[in-house]
Amino acid sequence: MISAIFTLAVLVVMPKINIDLDNSILKLNSEIGGYNISLFNGKLVLDLTSFKEGLDLKGGIRILLKADVEGIESSERDNALESAKEIISNRINFLGVSEPNISTSKINEEYRIIVEIPGIDNVADAVSLIGKTAQLKFKQLDPTLPWSEDKFMEYFQTPIVWQDTGIIGSDLNGVDVVID
User: Fold this and answer.
1) How far apart are CA 167 and CA 175, in angstroms?
2) Domain coordinates of the chain in residue numbers?
3) Domain 55-131, what fold?
4) Residue 84: closest CA among 99, 98, 97, 67
5) What are the Cα distances from residue 29, in Å, to 20, 21, 32?
6) DSSP run (H or E) holding 100
7) Inter-CA distances, 179 with 55, 113, 137, 140, 176, Å
8) pLDDT at res. 3
9) What is the pLDDT of residues 141-159, one digit of tens each?
10) Which residues are 22's β-sheet partners?
11) How far apart are the first and last CA of the chain?
12) In degrees rounded to 5, what are phi and psi of residue 101?
């Protein structure tokens, strides 16, 4: 049973290899590995045709970020580091990079985030995207457009209908949200 599971696992993760034997005893033209499996009428597709190469095989960048946690209470520092890790992870996923590795590290009182991105071509863009500070901006719907609940998704997906109000998150010190 263990041998069968091992053999199946090797066949699943192995890249596609063509086998072409042509001799007087045996003629074989086939391939093994690199399977593309489609289940439930194509609703679930497992594409195993290409081998996933990580940072060690494909190359890429490794960035070590040191978190400044001076202004955060010591009981909240681990949560803050995890939140920063999630934000960086979302930004890297936006790049469309396959299998990035984002992890956190705490050594004594030094908090770090380790980012490994395989196969990245433009290192400067990746570093600027990771290190960019998010800024909250408020926009309003163009007043000449009619508003209704039915049009919400249409307007939401059309950026040109929104006008900048000039208000950003730092303008909202001490403001409470009131729902009418």
Assistant:
1) 13
2) 2-47, 55-131, 137-171
3) Alpha-Beta Plaits (3.30.70)
4) 67
5) 4, 6, 11
6) none
7) 49, 38, 20, 17, 10
8) 93
9) 888 888 888 888 888 778 8
10) 27
11) 64
12) -120, 115
Pairing of strands 162-168, 137-141: antiparallel
Is residue 22 left, alpha or beta, with left meaning phi > 0 and alpha meaning psi from -120 to 50? Answer: beta
Instruction: Please report the sign of the dihedral spanned by the C-alpha atoms of residue 10, residue 12, residue 17, residue 20.
Output: positive
Q: How many residues does the chain have?
A: 180
Q: Which two tokens stand for residue 76?
A: 């909240």
Q: What are phi and psi of 144, to 5 degrees?
A: -80, -10
Q: At what angle do helices 77-95 and 123-131 cross, to 10 degrees?
A: 140
Total-model pTM = 0.49
pLDDT (tens digit per residue) in 160-174: 888 888 877 666 666
d(CA 85, CA 92): 11
Tokens coding 38: 């489609």
* Beta carbons within 10 angstroms of residue 60's beta carbon: 20
Rounded to whole angstroms, the Cα distance separating 91 from 162 reads 23
